[in-house]
Amino acid sequence: MNKFEQLGLNEELLMAIEDMGFETPSEVQEKAIPVLLADNTDMVALAQTGTGKTAAFGFPLIQKINANDKTTQGLILSPTRELCLQIANELKNYSKYVKGLRVAAIYGGASITEQARDVKKGAQIIAATPGRMQDMINRGMVNISQIEYCILDEADEMLNMGFYEDITSILSHTPEEKNTWLFSATMPKEVSTIARKFMHKPEEITVGAKNSGTDTVQHEYYLVNGRDRYQALKRLADANPDIFSVIFCRTKRDTQNVAEKLIEDGYNAAALHGDLSQNQRDMVMKSFRTRQIQMLVATDVAARGIDVDDITHVINYQLPDEIETYNHRSGRTGRAGKSGISMVIVAKSELRKIKAIERIIKKQFEAKKVPNSMEICEIQLYHLASKIKNTEINEEVDHYLPAINDVLRDIDREDLIKKMVSVEFGRFFNYYKKAKDLNVSSSGGQNHASAPEDLPEGGNVRYFINVGERDGYDWKSLKDFLRDTVDLGRDDIFKVDVKESFSFFNTDATHTEDILRTFTDFKKNGRFINIEISKNPGGSKKGRDRNRKGNRFSASDKGFGKKGKKGRRR
Predict the structure, then answer these.
(1) What's 387's domain CATH number?
(2) Residue 211 included in any domain
(3) Which residue among 351, 370, 389 closes a domain?
(4) In which residues does the motif Q motif occur (predicted)?
(5) Is 470 exposed, middle or buried (0-12, 13-18, 19+ CB in 10 A)?
(6) 239: Cβ–Cβ under 8 A, 6 or more apart, which residues?
(7) What is the CATH number for 86?
(8) Which domain holds residue 391?
(9) Does residue 417 sit in the same domain as residue 474?
(10) pLDDT tens digits for 214-261?
(11) pTM
């Protein structure tokens, strides 16, 4: 029996679920769907963004709607145009086998008369933003006096955006005997007020702890001087060549300035803020969804409702004014069970905010160092080799090979590899070779990282391993694999950075011998997995000598992956 069938869903929905490839319900779906199907009840559901909330209320709503009755029976309010459209489209996919069921989307920035026509054609379900919905009620274009179900999705975000009066006014036009389902990531007092005022003894389900962050997101902070914030952002991007991120700024001005600087420095970036027209906003989001943009710089208001899969990083260029907003930011990554990283670039005066956020999300931040120049160059070197190895050969090049071989005939293989790698690697090396350390000690003053030779006995050691995302790993699963394989404790492995086809991690120096011995001639699924000590700070001199003598780098013998388009800066 299909796991969704066990929740009580009917045949039409199960057919649509099979078409969409859904196999296992998420936790919020498992908890919410049976309750909403079994009873006519109000519900408050607390769950993070990206946990499958649309299906959690969408499936029961569709199953309870009478498709033969053209009266509007269900109303869904959501904070933004993007989320409203997403919900409407998903409900249409869910109900594809339910004959006669219509879903209308009502939102600002589009023709209000066309939307009114969609409703009058017999839309049993309306997905709407509060502002446009209130406008249409005032104009007599929509009738919600007979609805049976009202869903408030991302309720905390709607209230944060100032929609309290609109929501209360809209709900005043609905019948008292309806069922209200409230879905929210957090439970601030405004959401509690809505629940008390418009709901009757609601069932409450919680996925994780109230207001807590999701377990799939790793939280990190980088302590720098305020004037070095932008340089730190660039280094974090360069240390993650396959980054696909949302960068949050507090103001529209900062958002535009940071995006312009990134574009000028050669990154695929764009700004998203309230001064953009709807057409400009749509173009930016389309480019971001298709990954033509790798770094989307946004304000909190503009980013609300963004639902884009596989965002690898959220970068807090500045912390939000409201601490609770951090949860919404970090929820843009680590969605649908995948892992993600939320980074905070923070000045010393803001460290107290990190502690406050930890208390709210019930997760610990890891203090990390902004990568130094050699760490970035090493990552980019491996990434370039990865790109070369995995590039598909264009057979048209055969026509030019005789002439190319003639030009290169006096260069031996090793020198040829060095020259190829140096074409791109040289740009990073020349840019960063005199770069200063950006890290600041929490006790004050700029850090001055010691050279590898000066590391004290028993210091941290950083390792390179030739597996990454291409092999199905993220930071969490790689950490678990290493810990289980070497029989280490929960906190013995840290600073895990997973790239597309290689990764880095740290341990205390006391574990180095065990790790290197375990991964000598180590195979998994028929493939050799190699671990080497990184040449960057964090390793011992002995480890670096081993790198130089016993494990010479070659683009042909590492498991390197492929990277998206992103040029070097200047």
Answers:
(1) 3.30.70.330
(2) no
(3) 370
(4) 2-30
(5) middle
(6) 371, 375, 376, 379, 497
(7) 3.40.50.300
(8) 371-570
(9) yes
(10) 678 899 999 998 889 999 999 999 999 999 999 999 888 899 999 999
(11) 0.59
**Count of beta carbons in the 10 Å neighbourhood of residue 568:** 16
- For residues 376 and 525, membership in a common domain is answered with yes
Angle at 13 between CA 8 and CA 15, to 5 degrees: 115
Helix (H, G, I), strand (E, B) or coil at 345: strand
- State the residue for tokens 């649908």: 336
Q: How many other CB atoms are found less than 10 A from the CB of residue 492?
A: 17
523-547 core/surface letters (b: 16 or more CB in 10 A; e: else): eeeeeebbbbbbbbbbbbeebbeeb
> Has residue 212 been placed in a domain?
no
**Share of the chain residues as helix, strand and coil, in percent rounded to the nearest 5:** 45, 15, 40
Give me the residue label for tokens 């929509």.
142
Number of domains in the chain: 3
Q: Do residue 478 and residue 429 come from a single domain? A: yes
pLDDT in the model for residue 559: 33
State what percent of residues in the chain have pLDDT above 70: 88
The residue out of 370, 390, 425 marking a domain boundary is 370
Q: In whole angstroms, give the CA distance from residue 140 to residue 317.
A: 44
pLDDT in tens, 484-521: 888 787 778 988 999 988 999 999 887 888 898 888 87
User: Buried b / exposed e across 316-346, counting CB within 10 Å, b at 16+?
Assistant: bbbbbeeebbbbbbbbbbbbeebbbbbbbbb
With respect to residue 521, please indicate whether it lies within any of the assigned structural domains.
yes
CA–CA dist 30, 476 (Å, integer):
24
- Which range of 137-141, 184-188, 282-286 scores highest in mean pLDDT? It is 137-141
**Cα–Cα distance measured from residue 13 to residue 9, given in angstroms and rounded to the nearest whole number:** 6
Residues 528 and 539 in one domain: yes
Residue 149 Ramachandran class (φ > 0 left, ψ -120 to 50 alpha, else beta): beta
Same domain, residue pair 160 and 47: yes
- pLDDT of 534-543, one tens digit each? 866 443 333 3
Selection from 472, 478, 546 nearest residue 506 by Cα? 478
Q: Say how far apart CA 112 and CA 131 lie, in whole Å.
A: 12
Asked, for residue 557, whether it belongs to a domain, the answer is: yes
Structure tokens belonging to residue 351: 């460290």
Contacts of 436 (CB under 8 A, 6+ apart): 446
351 and 398 within one domain: no
